[in-house]
Amino acid sequence: MAAGLSYTSRAHNDKPNTGRHRSRTADVIDHTEFLRCQTGGKSVINYSYTDNPLKLLMWDIWTFLSFSYALPWVVWPPTPSESAPELDELSWAPGNLFCLFVHLVLIVLQIGFLLVLIPICILLPVWMAALCIGGFLGLNWLLVIALNGNSLIYNSDPKYARASDENAHEKWIFINGVAAGEYWMKSNLDRLALTFGRPIEGIHNKTTGIIFDVIECLIQRNFGYATEDVRAAYKVVKDHLYDEKLSKVVFILHSQGGIEGSLVLDWLLQELPQDLLAKLEVYTFGCAANHFNNPHRHKKSQIEEQNSANGLLAASNPVTETALSESPVDMKTSSLSKNSTTAQSNGNGAGAGDGHTIKSHSNTVSLLSDDVPIRTTSDRVIGHIEHYAHTTDFVAIWGVLHLVTNVRASRMIPRFMGYVFSRTSSRGGHQLNQHYLEEMFPLERNAAGQLIGCKDTNKFMESIVEHEKAGTELQDLYDGVDVSLAVMRGRRASDIKPEVGLHGSFRSGDFKNREVRVADLSRLWQYR
């Protein structure tokens, strides 16, 4: 598999740099990378989710320990967001403080339990060991009840987004991540509803405490074990896909929710007709899954994609290829595609066979090529899958980033499907509201100070795509740590200039200085 090219993008006013070689200092700038499915970096992966579960477990434990230095960035930075601090997971709200206190107690108890578990089993009689273990699990259960509540399915507060005739054909579903009890689950739903202006239905991935949640992640990732919420999510998504009144089902996943969502997709791909699956769109944040499946509909399109350097950049079939208000089955011709066709037919293009490309200071990459059909990359069972990840987020590093930035040892190893926006940022933590949505989909207020929805523009989405080298995932991680440390030393995050990068495998050509922003590549952005 050919190694992918990578691209950076920057804010409009920044001068282009002369290469990727950023020094590891506090002056390093924020940046984001875009990866088209699994591109490949410096390392090689010789295992997949279909391998021996014990082998997968061994690798997971090894990578967990290898990336453990990034664990503090699960909650860093703890400072409140600018646009909606009242919805932050780590703000000083009474509900948050209660959740944090209970989780702290659970962490201490669970670590202590794991440390004494083996000695108890060896030194004590069986009945006494069983009594001790049962007593601890009972105490743990009582504590998590205080966090989880009684319901499995929640809905966002109608005051943040009400159902409308305009979006009546859509259904939005969310699965939360690690450690989220009822309070944080509702906070996530309300922030998503505010951001995208639609009611959100939530399938609650109930917490058992952070330590036990991580153990559950290992079991789900490596043994394919479906917990109660996975089975509930499968039923909910399946029922909505069969609903003839709906033409679109949007599935949003965070953290461990990415693992559960990947299991749900596996079941759906096995059972549902392809025309129903075409209604589904999937978007993840800090995804912890070890696989994401999305096969081609036809063998011919798969061969064409492989023969064209793994296909086209997402921008060749950009977010406008399907009208957001219409059924995804009714495919539209993209604006970039139209411009490409017009330029070539009028003789204003770069020349026969050149297609449209992005120009950079040192290299060019093709977004559109005459010898590759536009529908090649859109000929997938699920029309749209996008992953959003911070390069300093431990969960994302352990999950999606580790898997998409490394080369497969064999073409027979399944790929991690979907386009990946990988951002290095001074606020590159793991929390959905406080870190991901605040960085990528910040909110705005009216004159009265009330939250009214997502801002029409932001620094991240307005960045311009520019070329850089492949295999930079480790440097991105170092840069993210440096940026965060710079903020810890008192430097304002706003003083650090943004930069956005992009990874993929493309063909040569000339794009005639066409600017492509992150907003042009992100379909989810079009829903705000």
Structural summary, described in words:
The protein has 528 residues and is α/β, with parallel strands linked by helices. It has a domain at 150-297 and 378-479: Rossmann fold (3-Layer(aba) Sandwich), CATH 3.40.50. The protein is built from 14 helices and 17 strands. α1 packs across α5. The radius of gyration is 23 Å and the shape is globular. Residues 1-28, 309-322, 326-377 and 466-512 have low confidence and may be disordered. Residues 1-10, 332-347 have a biased composition (Polar residues).
**What is the CATH third-level topology name of one domain?**
Rossmann fold
The helicity comes to: 25-40%
CATH architectural designation of one domain: 3-Layer(aba) Sandwich
Give the overall silhouette: globular
Characteristics:
globular; 15% strand; alpha/beta; single chain; disordered N terminus
Short description, anyone?
Keywords: Membrane, Transmembrane, Transmembrane helix. Helix content is about 35%, strand content about 15%.
